[in-house]
Amino acid sequence: MKFRLRSKKYIDDTAAAGEQNVLSETERQVSGEEAEPGDASLRELREQARQSISRRKGMETDEEDDGEEQKRAAALLLRRRALLRAARRVLRAKRLTLLLVGAALVILGIFIASVIQERMGNFTININRMDMYRQGLMLSETEDFEDPKSRLKAAAVENATNISVDDLPDDLDQIEGSHNGKDYMAYTFYVRNGGREKIDYIANIIIEMEAKGVSDAVRVAVYDDTGRRAIYAKRAANGEPEPGTIPFINDQVIMARLVEDFEVNDVDRYTVVSWLEGDDPECVDAIIGGMIRMSMNLEVDKPIKDR
After folding, report:
1. What integer pLDDT is reported at residue 85 of this predicted model?
2. CB 175 within 8 A of CB 152
3. What would you report as the CA-atom Rg of the chain, rounded to the nearest whole angstrom?
4. How far apart are CA 27 and CA 31, in angstroms?
């Protein structure tokens, strides 16, 4: 036996067609010659067919209304979702803006702090990291090298005024680390060859930044491990060296020194002192409020064949 499946719409349409045929046949019989007077059964059948058709049309109208309601509800839901997505985008944009503003404030704070520090002045000693790793060149504030580094930083001097070289203490090169005076910067450190072979290295002091021409009146003294002292200064306005000083190499480089045959485990000691020389004709009121930042850099020299 075979069964054929029909859709609900097909069944409803068939039922409606059957009811319509019944109604038409009933009307024909009632109105035609075949209808007998007083035959109530045909009238009742006709009335039932009409009521069935009316009910079915009402159901179809209700279904159409339900479909419209569903469409409106779906459209409302889509609009609501679109509004939620837009609100999320606005919220993300606000959060991103707050993050950017916060980052900008942090950067501004770091910049202001660095400017303030620069105005107070500072002095750093640096070794190329590759020279430290490959050649074993290292720095320390103490002779025992318990804490070797590739970078040292001297304490800054605040609100310094000019002094004379004769005002400096005699034991400046006998104190380790930072030992500033009220009006001068003093720093003692050590360099060691911790590698496996003899090397040459170059030490130089440079001006990284200055304001109001402070370098015109500054003095930089360098003590070596023998106690010898060399004082460096810019040339005078007439081009001649200032009395008792060695001229800067140029406007940026204060001094440079080549150390040859630095044996394994050898240690060199340096003391660097800087101040504003009150006896210098260039030490005038115009430099009040100025600043200077310097650094000393040490690096392994290239072999002679590569020079």
Report:
1. 83
2. no
3. 50
4. 6
d(CA 43, CA 28): 11
Short-list 81, 31, 27, 78, CA closest to 49: 27
pLDDT of residue 45: 64
Give CA–CA dist 54/58, Å, rounded: 6
Sheet with 151-154, edge to edge strand ranges: 151-154, 122-127, 291-300, 199-211, 253-262
Is this model's pTM higher than 0.85 or not? no
Q: Mean pLDDT in each 10-residue stretch from start to end of the chain (307 residues)? A: 46 52 51 48 66 62 63 79 82 82 72 43 85 90 94 89 93 94 95 93 95 93 94 95 96 95 95 95 88 94 51
Q: What single letter denotes the amino acid at residue 74?
A: A
Q: What is the pLDDT of residue 28?
A: 53
Chain center to CA of 158: 31
| Other Cβ atoms closer than 10 A to 12 | 13
Q: How far apart are CA 22 and CA 30, in angstroms?
A: 12
Cβ-in-10-Å burial (0-12, 13-18, 19+) of 45 comes to middle
Pull the structure tokens for residue 142: 């103490």
Report whether 248 contacts 235 (CB < 8 A).
yes
Enclosing H/E stretch for 10 = helix 8-31
Cα–Cα distance for residue pair 80/93, rounded to 1 Å: 20
The sign of the torsion formed by the CA atoms of 179, 295, 255, 145 equals positive
Spatial distance between the Cα atoms of 248 and 254, rounded to a whole number of angstroms: 4
CA distance 9 to 12: 5
